[in-house]
Design goal:
Layout lengths: L9 E7 L6 E7 L2 E5 L1 E5 L10 H6 L5 E4 H6 L3 H6 L3 H5 L5 E4 L2 H9 L8 E2 L13 H6 L11 E3 L4 E4 L6 E4 L1 H11 L3 E3 L11 H23 L8 E6 L5 H12 L5 E4 L3 E2 L3 H9 L8 E3 L5 H9 L4 E4 L1 H7 L2 E4 L2 E4 L19 H5 L2 H9 L3 H27 L3 H14 L2 H18 L1
Parallel strand pairs: 4-5, 4-16, 5-6, 6-11, 7-14, 11-12, 12-13, 13-15, 15-16
Antiparallel strand pairs: 1-2, 2-3, 8-9, 9-10, 17-18
Helix pairs in contact: 7-8, 8-9, 9-10, 10-11, 11-15, 11-16, 12-15, 14-15, 15-16
The structure holds one RNA strand of 72 nucleotides.
Length: 436
RNA sequence: GCGGCUGUAGCUCAACGGUAGAGCACUCCCCUGUCACGGGAGAGGCCGUGGGAUCAACACCCAUCAGCCGCG
């Protein structure tokens, strides 16, 4: 029944880390190559917020990821299909991906209206304790007595309410793939359930079985269409923070012959790296692995070291829009009063367009006055920063100095306290002056 | 000159006979497959000035100063 096809993408590994799972390679897609490890830029609604595709290309982006749920609701996948598919529609010539909508089962479901992220700070994070206290329960209830959320998971799929007009929609694995087929990205993802870190083990296990069943449905459906020869399908590993479930998931999916693999779900901050390792020791080595939704520098280092090839994250753009910049000494809030008259670049030594042409004082002014250009300039910088960080990791792998690079970089980035950032900047500026 | 209205947080305005709140601005924090020009915390006022009645006034009365609007 299933049509056997060769994969629409190929993956070649050029160099591996010694004593770790990390590797550098190339993914060839119908719309061009991706040098890995690579950071994938997020353009949920077929646009990287505030950034034109020309800017994106200039700042070094290789690939863009859009979202099935959002594009299905608006403008609708048929329109995108008629207009030539995602890449043509948004005028991005390079490789594209779509996420399946599985994350929205979490963000619009268990996490909706609460202060929950897919990350918990650690094993004892109070956020993983039962959250349905009498207070939150009454606060989050609507008339019918169910918790207030706008996504609801059942055995066959997820019921979503539109965030645009409240209308009700139902995604099954097949429906998600059909939409992604129409949107037409080079790489698409299986429809999974991204579970909340607050869910107990029983639920994680139950959800995992369901996600595996859905993965099989997605694969069978996709392979039965003509799109299997032009769009690669990645299965998604889940299992929460539990070693046995993660390994079970990796085994189940590895047996399914996807074109590549996503690693999704929730992690404990302190052991995300080991969770990724559990999985990547099992997944087939010759297929690309995409760690979904990860983007903090320290997390990226851990993930690359432990064998992930692709990462996407909204952090560079969302932080940019809300006034937080990545710098080599850690993150800063550019809207802070102390930057009002700061004549320096956003991050000393940064080669991005924004840093080369604008001052902190100017960006601080744009942020404070709510100007649109603030989000654009900050996003250009943050995207450049993260994309190039991953580029540097790739280079370091090729040059056999990944671990040295990691150590030096994180020493500066993580151990630097906020208070000492300004001193460090000052010293950098002074030493740079002497060298010139 | 006469009459009326108004003086409360940086700004625009609430409130109440028992020692004041909001929005914006300000200071700072947060953001990990975007609900995202988003979320949160904090600082800030002897209620124009001087009297008076009252157990008690920002609130009532008198005077005064300032601003606005009319009529001269």
């Amino acid at each position: 029944m299933a049509i056997m096809t060769t994969s629409p993408i190929s993956f070649a590994i050029h160099k591996k880390l010694k004593n770790a799972l990390g590797r550098a390679g190339t993914i060839v897609t119908p719309h061009g190559e991706i040098q890995t490890p690579a950071f994938v830029t997020v353009g949920t609604k077929a646009t990287v917020k505030g950034i034109t595709p020309e800017m994106l290309k200039d700042l070094g982006a290789q690939v863009v990821l859009a979202n099935t749920y959002h594009l299905y609701l608006q403008p609708g996948e048929k329109i995108i299909n008629t207009l030539g598919g995602l890449g043509k529609f948004m005028n991005w010539q390079g490789p594209t991906m779509t996420d399946s909508g599985g994350f929205q089962a979490f963000s619009l479901g268990a996490a909706y209206g609460k202060n929950i992220t897919k990350f918990v700070a650690g094993k004892d994070d109070p956020k993983i304790l039962p959250h349905f206290t009498p207070e939150t329960l009454s606060k989050n209830k609507v008339e019918d007595g169910s918790p207030m959320n706008i996504a609801k998971v059942d055995e066959n799929g997820v019921m979503f309410k539109s965030i645009i007009d409240g209308s009700v929609h139902y995604f099954t694995p097949e429906k998600s793939i059909q939409i992604q087929n129409d949107i037409g990205a080079d790489i698409i993802f299986a429809f999974d359930e991204c579970t909340s870190p607050q869910e107990p083990y029983n639920y994680q296990a139950k959800s995992l079985d369901r996600t595996h069943r859905w993965a099989k449905n997605c694969l069978e459906y996709h392979r039965s269409t003509k799109h299997a020869s032009t769009q690669a399908l990645f299965g998604i590993v889940q299992g929460g923070r539990h070693e046995d479930l993660r390994k079970e998931s990796a085994k189940a999916l590895a047996a399914m012959d996807f074109d590549g693999y996503g690693i999704g779900g929730s992690f404990a901050k302190e052991d995300m790296g080991s969770a990724v390792k559990w999985v990547n020791e099992i997944l087939p080595e010759d297929k690309p692995r995409h760690l979904l939704g990860i983007g903090e520098p320290a997390d990226l280092f851990d993930a690359v070291e432990n064998g992930c090839d692709l990462f996407d994250c909204v952090l560079p753009t969302r932080n940019g829009r809300t006034g937080t910049l990545f710098t080599k000494y850690g993150k800063i809030n550019i809207g802070n009063a102390k930057y009002k008259d700061d004549a320096g670049p956003f991050d000393e030594g940064c080669e991005c367009y924004a840093c080369k042409n604008y001052t902190r004082a100017y960006l601080s002014h744009l942020v404070r006055s709510g100007e649109m250009l603030a989000g654009t300039l900050a996003s250009i910088h943050n995207l450049y920063f993260i994309i190039h960080l991953v580029d540097e990791m790739r280079k370091a792998i090729h040059e056999d100095r990944f671990f040295e690079f990691k150590k030096e970089y994180l020493h500066l980035y993580v151990t630097m306290s906020r208070a000492s950032i300004d001193t460090a900047r000052h010293d950098f500026a002074k030493s740079h002056e002497k060298n010139v």
